[in-house]
Amino acid sequence: MRTLSGLGVSAGVGQAHALLVSPAPGLPTSDPSQGTEADMARIESALNKVADRLDERSMHADPSALAVLQATAMMARDPGLLTSIKSHLTDGHGPAHALWAAFDDFCAQLGAAGGYLAERVTDLRNVRDRAVAVMQGLPEPGVPSFDSPVILVAEDLAPADTATLNPDLVRGLITAAGGPTSHTAILASQIGIPAVVRCSEAREIEDGTPLALDGVTGTVLVEPDEAAVAELTSRANRRAEVLASAPEGDATLSDGERVLVLANIGSPSDAPTAKKKGAEGVGLFRTEFLFLDRQDAPTVNEQTEAYATVLKTFDEGAKVVFRTLDAGADKPLAFADLGPEENPALGRRGLRLSQVRTDLIDAQLEALAKAAEQTGRDPYVMAPMVATRAEAEWFSSRAHAAGIKTVGIMVEVPSTALRSAQVLETVDFASIGTNDLTQYAMAADRLQGELAELLTPWQPAVIQLVKATCDGAGERLIGVCGEAAGDPLLALVLVGVGVRSLSMAAGKITAVKATLSRHSLDQCRQIAEAALAASSPEEARKAALELADPSVEVLVS
Ligand code: PEP
Ligand code: MG
């Protein structure tokens, strides 16, 4: 047995055989033709194999995934495609290049058609990558088909791959790359699949190897013996006991102080799950997740429907926060692309992009106001990446003009945290995005796994910025919706510096509620003081753990 370690980013223990997710191999460097007829036979056989595998996979899929997989299989069998490939072969292309060129033609046609058809480009590219891999005798890229429990092992996973995974069959995710706040990690914990990222030794794991993982500690056991799995499981059981003690209703500290515990969601369908897992509302709806694969801007009506669905899911008076489009940097949107930039994370992203594409923000605000009218609810609406008072004012007057009553901003830029008294003057609430706040405070790209040590929100500088935000906020409700809020121990620190609303992946709610209920506000303040006095993230965490209730240990290490 070998023990590997990575970063645990989504709680839970999983045990199953490894299923390797191969990256798309791309075009071969050598692609000789064996004559049109032989080439066509090879191409047709590769496409049929891809189609057959998709069909086979569809037989085990749920109804919505079934339709998608069958439609994709039909693309691979499209006779028009073969005609086009043949003409590229006769133009002198090698077989893989001819197939690639024909797909490119189809993609261009669909892209130009716009709307629903344009969205099929992604599926076509997926068929192309699979077929080119099969022609080279390589495993198909992406998540291969499977019908028994697996642990997926990949270099990294695209958010689109993660979003469609079935937690009943996928018992865990292990990636060699990726960071703790990558959107793939966030999606995994939203779906409830244990996940470990930044486990570089995962590159050596072979297909079919028995594995076990703990998505809290980041431990991966390769060919585990029974005793090791038993220990992993026993800790998981002790954890389960603590979790079972979490209060069912609203979250309070042991002295009765209220703290809102909310969920981060990426689509209306996440809302009922979040509610079931104990969320009182939504602290962050990442609205851009709705449109990641769209080629054209969503209409006001379709947005209204999505937003109204979320509002109706929660009780009247619940806090439901919509973040306006946070496009750019790690979340590029095809319809909101302002062109290449040297440093996208420092460029025109978030609100800066909305200030250029006022059509997009106005449509979104109109949709939110309509959803409010339709449901009789009062949505909280906030803008991402606000750096100055002028930007906050720009957003708040635009949102009010559109009919939004409760307007806020995200605190993700150190300048806003340091000047919160001034920047927050024209808004009603704020939510601290500790993922970006850490990235910008530590000048460390959040997508770069190697920088994980700098990127932890346990950095005393980050905790100090959270405190500065709360200190300057007056009576305004300050929340945290970055991943920090879902760390039970760090949640105590956040409450200790003045945060009263914590929003997290739904899978983390119970652990945070259980932990909050075992501590008083005084204890949280002492824990926060100790963390702030520390000179490194490790020291801060250790100091907090020493002062916290002993039950917290099993939840966080
Ligand atoms: C954050 O930056 O902490 C945040 C919540 O926003 P996102 O992760 O979507 O950038
Ligand atoms: Mg952010």
TrEMBL record:
Its cofactor is Mg(2+). Its main location: cytoplasm. PANTHER family: PHOSPHOENOLPYRUVATE-PROTEIN PHOSPHOTRANSFERASE (PTHR46244). This is Phosphoenolpyruvate-protein phosphotransferase. Coiled coil: none annotated. Residues 6-120 form the Phosphotransferase system enzyme I N-terminal domain. GO terms for biological process: phosphoenolpyruvate-dependent sugar phosphotransferase system. Belongs to the PEP-utilizing enzyme family. Keywords: Cytoplasm, Kinase, Magnesium, Metal-binding, Phosphotransferase system, Sugar transport, Transferase, Transport. It is found in: Cytoplasm. One of its GO terms (cellular component) is cytoplasm. It catalyses: L-histidyl-[protein] + phosphoenolpyruvate = N(pros)-phospho-L-histidyl-[protein] + pyruvate. Transmembrane segments: none annotated. Phosphoenolpyruvate binds at R286, R323, N435, D436, R446. Residues 147-218 form the PEP-utilising enzyme mobile domain. GO terms for molecular function: kinase activity; metal ion binding; phosphoenolpyruvate-protein phosphotransferase activity. It is an enzyme of class 2 (transferase). The active site is at H183 (tele-phosphohistidine intermediate), C481 (proton donor). Mg(2+) binds at E412, D436. General (non sugar-specific) component of the phosphoenolpyruvate-dependent sugar phosphotransferase system (sugar PTS). This major carbohydrate active-transport system catalyzes the phosphorylation of incoming sugar substrates concomitantly with their translocation across the cell membrane. Enzyme I transfers the phosphoryl group from phosphoenolpyruvate (PEP) to the phosphoryl carrier protein (HPr). Residues 248-518 form the PEP-utilising enzyme C-terminal domain. Its EC number is 2.7.3.9.
